[in-house]
Amino acid sequence: MMLPYPIRDKILLDIVKTNKYVGVSFNSDKTKIGTIAEVYDINEVQDGANIILQGLCRFSKDYPIDDNELYTQAYVSYKEDIINNIDEVKALKPRILGLFSKINKISPIVPREIISIIDTIKEDTSMVCDMIAASSDTDLDERQSVLNEVELSKRMRTVLKILNSKLNIIEIGIKVDNETKKSMEQTNREYYLRRQREEINKQLGDGDKDNKNEVEIYKERIDKKGLPQEALDEANRELKRMERMHSASHEYSIVATYLDWLLDLPWNDSTKDNTDISIARDILEKDHYGLDKPKKRILEFLAVRKLKADSRTPILCFIGPPGTGKTSLGKSIACAMNRKFYRMSLGGIKDEADVRGFRRTYLGSMPGRIIQSIKRAGSNNPLVMLDEIDKIGSDHRGGDPASALLEALDPEQNYSFVDHYINVPFDLSKILFITTANTLSTIQPALRDRMEIIELHGYSQYEKLKIANGFLIPRQIKEHGLNDSQIEFTEDSLDEIINAYTLEAGVRNLEREIANICRGVATEIVDNKIESEKINKDIVKKYLDVPKFKTISDIEITKPGLSTVLYASSLGGGIDLVETIKFKKEGKLQRVITSGSLGDVIKESVGVALSWIKENRPLLAEKITEYDIHVHFPSGATPKDGPSAGIALVTALVSLFTDKKIKSNLAMTGEMTLRGKVLEIGGIKHKVLAAHRASVTDVILPKWNKKDIGELPMDLHKDISFHFVDTMEEVLGLVFE
């Protein structure tokens, strides 16, 4: 193949004139092989010459004789083609020729003269590869990579790779061209049809009838709605934008959706409150047993509302374990007040926009949950229940939804709540917000400060029996298609279900177990095995299998070194053992091992207990130093922390080293100082209810918690003896047999 080569240096031109053959290579790290060429012709021009070179063969430099900026004299080695795999060469050749032909059919990039030359030399595989690589619009690096390959099959694979890349680029370019052309044709067609339709409508005098009709409808709705001034101005502003738009445009539908939201909100629609306290009291008593505090607070609100119609609406927060009736109580309150009810679950939300809404600049934007709840309730004074407010999350990308709730739940601000989507103030002050939570600890302090906390501690045994007989059993009998003559629950059967199958603060699992029995009875009646069933303690096991829980009397507590402690959690109260053992020291230092997923505060309480015993029981102190001690709380998978196990730890350790057993059916709770003072603790009602569920007959409490006992149901006072203590010495005087 002949190629022109320009020379602009006179010295180099003189050298070329005196030599028939020259070597051509590039000064590059990638250059391994050059080309020996014959000087075929020299055409001198004004500033040099253009020489025509005929490539002959490959060469590699062995070592230079003379090397300068213009040229290099060197000994070279002639590089013949190497063929290691003739079968591969035969297989690759037709693929290369076919691919080269395909590229030139799709996008002719090689002159016809070159194609003719390739056709005449197609028997010379090496020459064909070199010609195709040199003529296929390849860059310098690609050509050099072909030149570097002396082994023929490798060179052919390199050429094949280059051709595949070229074909891929050409096909992508053709695809892009076709898509662009198609898009332009479609755009032009739509534009032409739109202009044609507009011209026809103009000639007929119709204009955009759909647009005009819809705009008139919205205008009529705006006039009739009686919007506040800011909302009215915003609605008219959006309506003017709508008039200038075509009904088929995307922006038109966005404006229409916004106007629908704005006009569907109940700006002036409200329900009349029922201020008859006797009717409200009857409704609340009918739907729920107990729960005196929240009922009393709602009746107080209705009384004030009757005397002062524009009184401020409170923000209530029901705190209590699962199943204590928080959500269902909200429904009853709405019914008693004659208000619409809407429940909004906040558990797991992490984005502020879920509360405040998304700005209309975003695609698919919509109002927040508060505005949505008002629209769905259909009045501007509904009862909105914000469920699981203690389980709100936060995300660095979406902001803090708890902080967004501050404005909505603040009576000083919520009369002008602005949702990001609606973007005009809406009065939330008429809404009765009731929130629910299992614990106060995870609620943001600023949010907690805006709410009136009402605790629902849980139910006693007596209260659960009343609820089961008055509410749960009738409901489950009805839901399972039974009647009172087909199934009857005795009191001992309910006692068994409550104590052995549902160790909980609420009644959710109690209702679930009653439903299990009703299903079992319904199945046996349908199978014609029985006509009716009287459920007693023994029959309960037939339908519910073996008991799921043990009472304290079922747990081995007669061994020295054990004591029973009461605790409170977000799920209610509970009862647990403190287990201690001693064993001879292995070294000079005493080891105190703690286990049972204990937090730092409980571990510190263990140290306080040991220090107090060593200080106040000298005889035990000598014995204690001879042993290593292990303190364990069962249920190791459940994390435990807090100071209220202090007196139980001292009791267990004194019992261990005196070898005295603690009284049966005795439980305790209280924090102890190094001086032996017993301090006030929280969660008394949860803890005492747990003791009652576990059939405990004696409970030791701090003297400072005596005031909390008045809140307990009367049946607990009959079944439990309370012992109030001020010092650890008083505790030890009560616990041993």
Automatic annotation (TrEMBL):
Pfam families: AAA (PF00004), Lon_C (PF05362), Lon_lid (PF22667), LON_substr_bdg (PF02190). Signal peptide: none annotated. It is found in: Cytoplasm. Keywords: ATP-binding, Hydrolase, Nucleotide-binding, Protease, Serine protease. Its EC number is 3.4.21.53. Residues 1-167 form the Lon N-terminal domain. GO terms for cellular component: cytoplasm. PANTHER family: ATP DEPENDENT LON PROTEASE FAMILY MEMBER. This is endopeptidase La. It comes from viral metagenome.
